[in-house]
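Q: I have 84 residues here and want to know how they pack in 3D. Can you give me a structure?
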Amino acid sequence: MTVRPSTRRFAARPGDPDTWVRAPEPSTASPGAGGLFTARLTIDVTPALRARIKITAFQRGQTVADMLRDLLTREFPTNDGGRT
Protein backbone atom coordinates (compact mmCIF):
# COMPACT_ATOMS: atom_id res chain seq x y z
CA MET A 1 0.00 0.00 0.00
CA THR A 2 1.37 3.41 -0.94
CA VAL A 3 1.03 6.46 1.22
CA ARG A 4 -0.06 9.69 -0.43
CA PRO A 5 1.84 12.80 0.55
CA SER A 6 -0.38 15.23 2.39
CA THR A 7 -1.09 18.47 0.54
CA ARG A 8 -2.60 20.06 3.64
CA ARG A 9 -0.48 22.77 5.16
CA PHE A 10 -0.98 25.21 7.95
CA ALA A 11 -1.43 28.79 6.83
CA ALA A 12 1.26 31.18 7.93
CA ARG A 13 0.33 34.45 9.56
CA PRO A 14 0.46 37.29 7.06
CA GLY A 15 3.44 39.62 7.44
CA ASP A 16 1.36 42.55 6.18
CA PRO A 17 -2.37 42.22 7.00
CA ASP A 18 -3.37 44.94 4.53
CA THR A 19 -1.76 43.09 1.63
CA TRP A 20 -3.24 39.80 2.81
CA VAL A 21 -6.77 41.25 2.95
CA ARG A 22 -6.46 42.79 -0.53
CA ALA A 23 -5.02 39.67 -2.17
CA PRO A 24 -7.54 37.69 -4.26
CA GLU A 25 -8.30 34.14 -3.26
CA PRO A 26 -6.69 32.04 -6.01
CA SER A 27 -9.36 29.33 -6.03
CA THR A 28 -12.45 31.56 -5.77
CA ALA A 29 -11.45 34.91 -7.22
CA SER A 30 -12.95 35.70 -10.57
CA PRO A 31 -12.91 38.72 -12.84
CA GLY A 32 -15.84 40.87 -11.84
CA ALA A 33 -16.88 44.49 -12.19
CA GLY A 34 -14.57 46.37 -14.50
CA GLY A 35 -12.30 43.37 -15.05
CA LEU A 36 -10.95 43.59 -11.49
CA PHE A 37 -10.77 40.53 -9.30
CA THR A 38 -13.60 40.40 -6.81
CA ALA A 39 -14.19 38.71 -3.49
CA ARG A 40 -17.52 37.28 -2.41
CA LEU A 41 -19.20 38.80 0.65
CA THR A 42 -22.14 37.05 2.28
CA ILE A 43 -24.54 38.77 4.66
CA ASP A 44 -27.79 37.69 6.26
CA VAL A 45 -30.79 39.96 5.70
CA THR A 46 -34.47 39.51 6.37
CA PRO A 47 -36.68 38.38 3.49
CA ALA A 48 -38.44 41.75 3.59
CA LEU A 49 -35.16 43.68 3.25
CA ARG A 50 -34.02 41.38 0.45
CA ALA A 51 -37.29 42.05 -1.39
CA ARG A 52 -36.89 45.83 -0.98
CA ILE A 53 -33.32 45.66 -2.27
CA LYS A 54 -34.35 43.62 -5.32
CA ILE A 55 -37.30 45.90 -6.11
CA THR A 56 -35.16 49.02 -5.82
CA ALA A 57 -32.47 47.55 -8.06
CA PHE A 58 -35.10 46.59 -10.65
CA GLN A 59 -36.66 50.07 -10.55
CA ARG A 60 -33.23 51.63 -11.10
CA GLY A 61 -32.42 49.26 -13.94
CA GLN A 62 -29.43 47.81 -12.08
CA THR A 63 -28.43 44.43 -10.78
CA VAL A 64 -28.50 43.98 -7.03
CA ALA A 65 -24.74 43.34 -7.06
CA ASP A 66 -23.98 46.57 -8.96
CA MET A 67 -26.26 48.62 -6.72
CA LEU A 68 -24.73 47.23 -3.52
CA ARG A 69 -21.17 47.66 -4.83
CA ASP A 70 -21.96 51.34 -5.51
CA LEU A 71 -23.47 51.70 -2.04
CA LEU A 72 -20.46 50.10 -0.34
CA THR A 73 -18.03 52.19 -2.41
CA ARG A 74 -19.79 55.39 -1.31
CA GLU A 75 -19.95 54.28 2.33
CA PHE A 76 -16.33 53.09 2.46
CA PRO A 77 -14.25 55.38 0.23
CA THR A 78 -10.61 54.60 -0.37
CA ASN A 79 -8.03 56.53 1.64
CA ASP A 80 -4.99 55.37 -0.31
CA GLY A 81 -4.93 57.55 -3.39
CA GLY A 82 -7.66 55.74 -5.33
CA ARG A 83 -6.67 52.08 -5.01
CA THR A 84 -9.64 49.82 -4.34
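Q: Anything worth noting?
A: The chain has three helices and two strands. Residues 66 and 72 are 10 Å apart (CA to CA).
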